[in-house]
Write a structure and sequence with these properties.
alpha+beta; six-stranded antiparallel β-sheet; Alpha-Beta Plaits
Length: 306
């Protein structure tokens, strides 16, 4: 599987991390605009569909434009965003002054714009504070993490990042860095999972649907941003996913209420039973990529255990 990415960690200092984390989970439009302002050479408020803008990093990475190949479009449908934030679990952050960390995964083509992503995140914090969304916050350290989470500092304070020190990860390395599961695999949802089935958000955990959705997500990211068509036997993998059973079901639907409906979803943990040999690359990558609606901005994060 030709799947390359980097795993960045931001250390942020603020006097109220709770308010900031609450904002970050809903910061999608603001982050997209911060990135666009850094790369767009036009003065117009909206992007153009003209040929001059075809290679614009904002359009390539945020535009979610379907490919030109009709068969690929039918297979992968709408491209996912090639970046994934992980924020502290909502409600767990402190209201007192402290440092906290969040991470950012950049996939394939997004690696070429690592400096812009870091600048956009810094800009997001500055403008969010100025708009009264939270008290002052700033990035004090940016690190690149390896397969085991070991950090390499690439920027301190407002200094431009040293992209030559980035640690590039791949799918094979992710799998090799983990123990091989037996026929039982634990899974815990860190942030709410919002998966749709027949057009409706699911209120319970479906193991088969979970793995099949992961397969589609990894496949689409590989095709659109890593320039590689996955030729694996997906029908065989799908059959393996359908045979997975839920041995322990401690999942539940967490309703965040009317004020924060976007933060509602399935939470909890459980134990899966099945043959994971062929499915392990998807499950292991999913820890970095998240799953479901809002995955790029912190939702659908999970951890595996065996």
């Amino acid at each position: 599987m030709d799947f390359s990415f980097v795993h960045l960690r931001f250390t942020i200092h603020t006097r109220d991390s709770s308010s900031l984390v609450s904002y970050l989970f809903r910061s999608g439009p603001d982050f997209a605009e911060a990135f666009r302002r850094l790369v767009c050479k036009r003065t117009a408020l909206e992007c153009s569909n003209g040929p001059r803008c075809a290679d614009c990093p904002y359009r390539v990475l945020f535009g979610q434009q379907p490919g030109a190949d009709p068969s690929a479009v039918r297979c992968h449908q709408k491209p996912p965003l090639p970046f994934i934030f992980s924020f502290p679990a909502y409600g767990a952050a402190s209201k007192q002054a402290n440092d906290f960390t969040c991470t950012l995964v950049l996939v394939g083509k997004a690696l070429n714009h690592t400096t812009v992503f870091i600048s956009a995140f810094r800009s997001l914090l500055a403008k969010g504070h100025k708009a009264g969304q939270f008290v002052e916050a700033a990035v004090s350290l940016v690190e690149s993490l390896d397969f085991h989470g070991n950090p390499t500092a690439i920027a301190k304070g407002e200094v431009a990042p040293d992209t030559g020190s980035l640690v590039t990860l791949d799918a094979q390395g992710v799998v090799d860095s983990r123990c091989r599961p037996t026929d039982a695999l634990g899974i815990a949802l860190i942030t709410p999972l919002k998966l749709a089935k027949t057009g409706k958000i699911m209120c319970s955990f479906d193991a088969g649907q979970f793995v099949r959705s992961l397969m589609r997500r990894v496949s689409a990211l590989t095709y659109y941003y890593c320039g590689c068509e996955m030729l694996d036997n997906f029908r065989e993998y799908a059959r393996a996913a359908n045979r997975i059973e839920l041995l322990e079901d401690n999942f539940f639907y967490a309703d965040a209420g009317r004020r924060s409906p976007a933060l509602s979803g399935v939470m909890g943990d459980g134990v899966l039973n099945g043959d994971f040999n062929e499915l392990m690359p998807f499950l292991a990558l999913g820890e970095y990529l998240h799953l479901g609606k809002g995955a790029s901005y912190g939702m659908g994060q999970y951890r595996l255990a065996w």
